[in-house]
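Re: duplicated header lines in exported structure tokens

Our pipeline writes sequence and tokens for each protein into one text file. With two proteins the header for the second block appears twice in some exports. Here is an export where it did not happen, for reference. First protein block:
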Amino acid sequence: HFTDLEGNLFKWSGGPMAESDAVILTYWDTAYVLGDVRNTSKVFYFVQDWEPFFYPMGVQYLRAEQTYRMGFSCITAGPWLTRQLRQSCGADADYFDLAVDHEIYYPRPVDRPDHPRVCFYARPSTPRRLVPIGVEALRRVCQCRSDVEIVFYGASDVELAEQPIPFPYTNRGILTEDKLSELFSSSDVGLVLSPTNCSRVPLEMMACKCAVVDLNRETVQGVLEHEVNALLADPTPKAIAEAILRLLDDEPLRLRLVETAYRQIQERSWDKSARRVEAILYEKLSGSRQILAERRSVPLPGLPATADLPSGQRERLEAIHAERKRPGAQWRARIKGWVKRLLRVDQGSLLNRKPIQTIGELTGKGRIGQSFVAQHDHLCRIDVLVGAYDRRNTRDVIFHLRASPTSTSDLATVQVNASLLADNDYASFVFEPQPDSRGKSYYFCVESPESAPGDAITLWVYCDVNLPDTKLYRGNHSISGQLIFGLYCVDDRWGEVGERPLQYDLAHVPTPWRQLSKAYRLLVTQGVSGLAREIHSYLRWKGSA
């Protein structure tokens, strides 16, 4: 069940563990198995719910709760768990936001019924889904509104047969993600009961423009807000039924909540949440270095070059590079590059509502530069948005800071191994602070002379931005556009300060490549019939637009 990863995966079945930078626990009872690991820098604990709640008060409850007091650095799904761990157990905890896959959950062009529809996440096998309370609430709804259609999902007919349901309903059973998205898109109200940590389901409903009813408990704080993006009810059938009926009867309220929720949910993505987890890992693993740097008010050391990496890591990178340098691999990389340009793979993206694209692989004698004017004294760091083509590149990337594009001497030089640069993220080039830099013109350029096709990074540029005092250069020639970068300086009071373009406003417009990629995913996951259904829905939507 593992996804594709660039690293190696090993199935551990007891005995000594390999030396590591970090161990990440993912379930409470593994804390007792791996809690005494010593050959790692730090042990992290991935907490997705308050797991003691899964048991009656007893041995299992107390053993699960005790794991939160064992000194691990916790990473939690959502803010409530972080607050709970800090306040109840004194644990070191940070969180990432629950999010949505916007390629799956969006308002689908489906036929909506001419009567109200309420969908309910009904899974009796999981007690925390509170199916008896939900069923009684829906019975009250049906008593008041005989025209309401009730749709269950999340369990088989056999499971539901054990639960008395005194009103007509349809059970959709276990649904694929695409079928879930279609159900949410066709429903007026979605009922989800989250007595423990907030479920992902309300966010997925919000992304499909389905109004949400959930419980008025602190577990949903930071995700759902009463009468802002959802209606929250006390955990009684009467209160839940009243919330559902209010949404069905008050269309202006329902539409307002739906539009607010939809707008808010666009800012959440699993990519952003993954980056947050990555940032927590980096911060905790280098915590002492971070504190020392802040006390000294100097920039953190940058990422290492190849020569500074451990010998084993250098050997692995050399082996990867040698494989990619073989003639056959080089030809495949070049052909792939031609196809990408033909299909406009690197186009069709917007950042801050401005079109952006990549400049192609940065190889050999290629050099991309940017002139700019510093706004503050003590310029000490420049972040540049790079792309890694979703692979682990191996050669060093060299950054040069110069007084002008015609200068041949460096004010600063930074060398970073490309394997440490994340895809579609900022690379930080840190150097000695430049005194009296305020108002001065500078130029920086990036090159990677040892890189080859199939083993190189790229840089992102704004396509049609041409600002005064800033010019983009390819080699020695000025070209249209601007690199996406941010400047940082050292302030005597605040330490390192600066700003770079926000990435949350990254959006995509349809291109042949994106459409082909989506079609391929549908074909692999749902077969020809699934692809045909999506094409049919798309054509109907286009025809009605």
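Second protein block, exported in the same file:
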Amino acid sequence: MSGLSRRALLAAAAAAAGGATAAAGAAPLASSAPTSATAPGGAAKVLRYAFRVSETGFDPAQVNDLYSRIVTPHIFEGLYRYDHLARPAKIKPLTADGMPVHSDDFRVWTVKLKPGIYFADDPAFKGKRRELVAEDYVFAFKRFADPRQKSPNWTGLAQTGFVGLAELRQRVLDGKDKAFDYDAPVAGLRVLDRYTIRFELEKSSPRFLATLAGGDLYGAFAREVAQAYGDAIPAHPVGTGPFRLAQWRRSSLIVLERNPDYRPVFYDADPAPDDAEGQALLARFKGRRLPMLDRVEISIIEEEQPRWLSFLQGQFDFLEFVPPDYIDVAMPNGAVAPNLRRRGIQGFQRLRSDGYVIIFNMEDPMVGGYDAPQVALRRALGLALDVPREIQIVYHKQALPSQSPVLPGTTGYDATFKSEAGDYDPARAKALLDLYGFVDRNGDGWRERPDGSPLRVEMMSQTEGLDRQLNDLRKKNFDAVGVHLSYKPGKWPENLKAARAGHFMSWRVGSSAASEDGQGALARLHGKQIGGQNMARFSMPAFDEIYERMEVMPDGPERLALFERAKRLAVAYMPYKPILHRVVTDLAQPALIGYRRPLFWTDWWQWVDIDPSETP
């Protein structure tokens, strides 16, 4: 078997350690001013690679896609961050001056900022050097609540429950205020002094620290920037982070350069004593000023073969997510292929905290609904999918079948948990369809619905190679049980927009963990988050009651028991068909030094270096 064995994958999932296993373009732009990190001789240190999917923009309040959220935390900074090398994950101060102080019931949290942190220079500040203050975080959180922003992340933040914030938003929705009043005091977001913030939550929130570590969304935002750019903010992100946006050609090229106003920050980390890889990276880089790169250039290449060939030809320093068709060429049996190893190419492979699902729109009259026949239909469609063959043929055995929505390496994930979600059983699928009246009445080979109308399932899809392979397999799977399946092709951003609005029937989509807590994956079924994380538009009071109890409960056996109940409900009603968790393989040219795949966070560029002498 190529790659990691199933036994090794299960062991990795059970351990949930998440460590990386290391084995032995765009036209260049004018370089930013040389700094101490620029290589001798003035050669700029440039990281070049390609995203597989187009970004949507760089306003944290408006983005919810992975690729935009890879960019934003390099520009915006949260109060806290994840330690780059710590496994398991560890949260540390970033702009905060120490860890937060919280009340015994986890409802009131107080954070002090480090003074002397400044935003990147921007015309919005009219020539003034703009210091980061507590109000900038208050303003950032308020932006998510402003209905004008139409933030897809509001539903999740609303669950955090800042006292008074939802009421301020509701005044606009009810027509009492014409616009969101950013100057109105909010008890849950209170500035105590220039550098001190007090958060008051409506309910106990033992894991609120992870929210404060979400720099990809909840970074400080200057009000002057919002006033200066208005609807153009996605093209003008201005933060306190290590990089700033230098150039953007939508869906084509993203260029970030070192932020010359970035404060002195130095490489440090806390890898476990027995983490040989982490300890080696710490020994090599400890004390280096960050960022070590001068610039990052990102192209958008959706097709797998051009992205792969561009890397092999040296046009890119990094290949994230080696396409499945090339796994056996890149890392046969989990080791870098000899021909690549001779070129100094590095390989990194690990079970990722992610999952692919098929979303069923619960409000769609064809596949949605809570009555027994509709539930049976979704479960039958799930059983008809030959996920083992997908893993073998399309993913080249670099994945595990999903048994629930919860992701590996997060609280609530259990490698021994088994459910119907992980089964491929076309005979049982046919029996369910027959039992509930989805039968072929006219002899044309396709089943009709219980009322005699045609049963026609439509699935949104992208057009790249991987989707084409999966589409062919799934069409055959559905054909085999007599269900007509058609595809509605589109670009990923357009499909995401349609899904958020509920204008779809079904869609295959992936997600990755944003923190070590598995409840984030269950947010996709929480009724109060319809229109945000809950793209299936699933609404069930019994599930919501479990979810909301979990939110306020400290970690422990009682909370894990609720995870079990939530997973069983999710599988029983099947608003999402869990498909698989991927083993992700990354490759790097010898020029890239210090890479280690993050667990839950999306920023890593400031922690790596480039050796220009190794760049083709």
